[in-house]
Amino acid sequence: MFTCSLCPRACHALRDDISGQGFCRLPDVMRIGRIAPHLWEEPPISGTRGTGAVFFSGCTLQCLYCQNGAISHRGEGRIFTPEALADAMHRLVDMGMQTISFITATPYTYAILEALELYRPPVPLVWNTSGYESVETLRLLDGVIDVYLPDLKHYSSRMSSLCAGAPDYFPVATQAILEMVRQHPSPVYDADSIMQKGVLIRHLILPGCTTESLRLLDWIHEHLPSETPVSLMQQYVPFGDLPQGLNRRITRREYHRVRDYMLTLGIPGFYQGPTAADAAFVPSFNQPDSFV
After folding, report:
1. pLDDT tens-digit series, residues 246-292
2. At what angle are helices 252-265 and 210-223 packed, to 10 degrees?
3. Which domain holds residue 162?
């Protein structure tokens, strides 16, 4: 049981073994929706054999368009102790995973650190995050996490309030990314092009929001080291009952506008193909085959 201020909402809410009173409503114990090999991350993360993906239940945001709503919104998953997580990570390494990815893990930071004291995988550890992180929590991870994989989702407070319930998303996420870059200023790759240290920023293009995308690319270009890679994603698929404007896929013209601007700025990175916009790529959560 503890009073939580791990995310930027700083609820100072009580969390115990059964429930939590804060924004995320999560208990103190870890709830995980999937632990399994994952082959569809960026090449420096998945490589050829995959990343061992640990999908944690709950989220510090409530994005309307989240494709992983089963875990982020509805909190589906199994309870894991630090010992059980350590055992699962060991199995993933034995399966040949080239990295281990902690996905939306912030509410369980203390328990994850406890698990890593029991077993530290001999492969890079990836912190896959919405970007909505507090600098104080990231400093707990300094020297522990090898690769940061943050989203940079929204530029305007209007869009981040509407889509994610976080009007302060941009100032908070950019400060968080600057802290990540302070810890790992330059990407380091091994002989197989797997990132050993560094920051790789993801941006998902949203329908009707290409100007926001351009402003975010401007910020990256102006504030981060020139070798910081960006993964430009066109995988947006509308899930659920979305407001007008968000209830469609992005167009070819929208994607090209953002991609061409990124190329003009000379930002290195990765570009998803249009086939990524398919619900078939959404993993299965909390099923018998969801856990190694």
Report:
1. 999 999 999 999 999 999 999 999 998 777 667 777 899 999 899 99
2. 20
3. 31-283
